[in-house]
Specification:
The protein is α+β, with helices and mostly antiparallel strands. 25% of the residues lie in helices and 11% in strands. The chain has eight helices and eight strands, in the order H-E-E-E-E-H-E-H-H-E-H-E-E-H-H-H. The strands form three sheets. Strands 5-6-8-7 form a four-stranded antiparallel sheet. A two-stranded antiparallel ribbon has the order 1-2. A two-stranded antiparallel sheet has the order 3-4. Strand 1 (29-32) and strand 2 (35-37) form a beta hairpin. It binds zinc ion. Zinc ion binds next to strand 6.
């Protein structure tokens, strides 16, 4: 019978066989109950780049008194710079010891709880696409790497956590001016091409210099994000060239603070950290090491 197939029919038969394989190339994934999303051809989900979860053995506690509410764990390599930055901010005129950690490392399941908690009838967001404008979907958040920190201030002075008003406070302004000196850069600047809300509280660590211990590892992890969606303010280091982070010849635009009422100030996840989270933050260190030995 095969000899009776014309070349056109053969093509159709091949396409029918190949269709399941082609469909597998972009398999829809379930982010939350009832929320299925197909990753784009470049692997991004709703604009967000995929990230693996850091091994708990890579994480350490942030300096005492920094965490707000829940424990704050960060990558071991980022911790010294975080401590130095907090110390510098504490003695900066007009700033003082106000910077705090609203959210640091989040496991993928913790991220899922944060992401899904505000989707549905009566919630802040109608669907996953709307939610992804201000929160990374599980498996696609820089917080899973342990290098990202959401900063807040205490006393808040009327500026709530994860709120763009941070950029107008002395502490927020100090971060914009000095965080890069300690290897931190602002992942989601105003008007970013990823379509993510301007997040002046969210900073990722890549090391101020390629010679900083751990900086090369962090920069490899964020190489794609830094190349395709540059941070502003960013850590600028000519040594980035060797891992393929090519910077535009033109100087980066000055950090901007959108005017009140601009679209970037709307739809931010002001209250999602205040929600009780069903998944507790994992406890690294003693218990984890004990389990590892048993395993
Ligand atoms: Zn964040």
């Amino acid at each position: 019978m095969r000899r009776y197939l014309t070349s056109g029919k053969r093509l159709l038969a091949w396409a029918a066989l190949a269709a399941p394989a082609l469909a597998m190339a972009a398999t829809p994934e379930q982010l939350c109950p009832g929320q299925w999303v197909t990753p784009g051809p470049d692997g991004r989900v709703l604009g967000h780049i995929p990230y693996r979860e850091a091994p708990l053995s890579d994480l350490v506690s942030a300096p005492a008194g920094f965490a707000l509410g829940q424990p704050c764990y960060v990558q071991r390599d980022a911790a010294p710079d975080l401590a130095r930055m907090l110390a510098a901010a504490a003695v900066a005129p007009g700033v003082g010891n106000r910077l705090r950690g609203v959210s640091c490392f989040r496991s993928i399941e913790h991220q899922r709880a944060v992401f899904c908690s505000q989707i549905g009838p009566g919630k802040k967001c109608h669907d996953a696409a709307e939610r992804a404008r201000s929160v990374g979907p599980p498996g696609h958040s820089e917080h899973a790497t342990g290098y990202a920190i959401d900063f807040g201030i205490r006393p808040s002075g009327g500026c709530g956590d994860v709120n763009p008003c941070l950029a107008r406070t002395p502490a927020g302004q100090w971060l914009i001016a000095h965080a890069h000196e300690y290897g931190f850069e602002l992942s989601f600047p105003a008007g970013n091409a990823q379509g993510v809300t301007w997040e002046p509280w969210h900073w990722r660590w890549v090391g101020a210099s390629i010679t900083t211990p751990g900086a090369a590892r962090a920069r490899l992890l964020f190489a794609r994000a830094r190349r395709e969606f540059p941070a502003i303010p960013a850590v600028i280091d000519v040594a980035d060239g060797w891992i393929g982070v090519i910077r535009p010849a033109a100087p980066a635009p000055a950090p901007s603070v959108p005017a009140p009422g601009s679209p970037y100030l709307q739809g931010h996840p002001q209250s999602y950290f205040i929600q009780p989270l069903p998944t507790p933050t994992p406890q690294p260190s003693p218990l984890y090491r004990r389990n590892r030995r048993r395993g």
